[in-house]
Amino acid sequence: MSFARDDIIVPCANLPLDTPSRINELRHAISSNQLMNSAHNLHELIDQLFSFVKNSRSTDSASIQDLLESAKEITIFEGCPWSNYKTVKTLDWTAYDEIVASSISIMQIYHLLTLEALEKQYNSNDLADEVWRKISNMLKSAFGLASEFRDQVSELHRPHFDYIYHLNQILVQLLIIFKNIYVTHREIKARFGVFDQVPEKLNTYVRILIFVYNECAVLEQLRKSSQVGTLKRFVEILFSYYRSLFYYHKNELGIALGISRYGLANSIDQSKIRSKLHIKAKNFNVKDKHLWSEEIRFMREFQNPGFPAAFRHNISTVVDILRILNSKYEKLNNSINFQEVPSLEEVKHRYLFDSADLPSGLQVPLVDINHFIPTCLMEATNVQNVYF
Questions:
Q1: pLDDT tens across 123-152, in order?
Q2: CA-CA distance, 287 to 227, in Å (whole number)?
Q3: CA distance linking residue 135 with residue 131, whole number of Å
Q4: Which of 30, 179, 357, 375 has a Cα-to-Cα distance from 17 of 20 to 30 A?
Q5: pLDDT, position 379
Q6: Would you state the torsion angle of the CA atoms of residues 85, 87, 93, 98, taken in this order, to the nearest 10 degrees?
Q7: What is the pTM of this model?
């Protein structure tokens, strides 16, 4: 899922390209050990590559698209000069290929920088609105580049480009969900563990998670990976929380209770209900000591080092809220509503992502993205507001 530094594609060491020395210097300074510095170097590398193309072709092109087409005609290496990049071994690597590979690398780096910054703020318990904006702005930098290249990515690079592009689409939307979870949990703690207010814009969060789940399906088509399955299960648990609130708000306590039980059952490692789908237990005891122990042991996939720590933090927070909600729902249903509680199997197929009456997904658009304009084109057209 490009969640690990070792997954980032970087230029192979000691492989000079048939390009100006400045381009080779920048390539040698890019590594997965220094992410922020590498991001800056990649920005400059891409900019230098466009200047190289423009100077090599002696063209008066005034658009990125024209320069990308010209870049396809400039061979700069035999083979693929990038590590962790699965492609054909024998090919003429062009300036175009170098630009696209650089854009993929920078999207991966901003993805990791976002996750690492988020986890750092969770650990410091400092997540003011300004912090959320700064974290989101990291991904905006990646999209500013990607949006300029996306329509001209060749079949050779398409699987790599699309995978990280959709992964970042997911992360952008999850940041909105994470912020709401953080704020809600903080309010619950301020009330000494009492939940008494459904979050505003509840339907919006439900629809965002539907969009995210659909994007996970796109990732599965691009690359078969157990990590994508883990991501889908993670999103399903978040969805269980919001869907339980949706039915609680409709006063359908039995369904809300069933969904909260499902979310708990699929978060926490319990030998009683462990199975391939983790939902096949016929008798579910909400007082099971595994569910209510202070030290929670999550499902194995959420303990995997490849699963982002920031995501694990949100699982922990949602489980804490679900345990509070589960007790609330159960008390109300046993004393007032007396509604039938659906089984875990029924919850999965009727009330979560398999439901026949789900609303459409919602992608909250990114705003204030600075579009990438190469320096060589700005100089030609006197465009102001430098991107870098």
A1: 988 788 888 888 888 888 888 888 888 999
A2: 31
A3: 6
A4: 375
A5: 65
A6: -30
A7: 0.89
